[in-house]
Amino acid sequence: MMDILMYLFETYIHSDAELQVDQDELEDELLRAGFHQKEIYKALHWLEELAALQQSDAHSAMATCAATSMRVYTAQEMERLDLEARGFLLFLEQIQVLTSETREMVIDRVMGLETNEFELDDLKWIILMVLFNVPGNENAYTLMEELLYSKEQGILH
């Protein structure tokens, strides 16, 4: 599923390709690219849920969290997000790439993935997707993109 999400993100978002694509046409393209129908449906549903998050009132309440508050992860979240991933989320909050609201959106989308394998690189892509989809986060998106792509130069481990 992550492969499909990354493919879509790089093809339609990052490349400035036409964003208004018919869903049937998109499914056909993904099938031609070698992805399985079941995984395509899961990825498209995941993206629909991401779009719905920005309109949800549940996450806007997180914006009022005190600066001194601390995020406590559930057992399921800690199973999916290892110590390195949780530390990375905290780091991004500290350098103001993520807010408490966008952090919660990232965690929601991570938990929405139907996969057994999840790595730090997957988390970085999900963060990019969330920041791209939430208006007003252009600077945070740019910084996260720089962090992601500067990995090859050894800046980000």
From TrEMBL:
Q: Record's InterPro entries? A: Smg
Q: Which family does it belong to?
A: Belongs to the Smg family.
Q: Please report the name of this protein according to its UniProt entry.
A: Protein Smg homolog
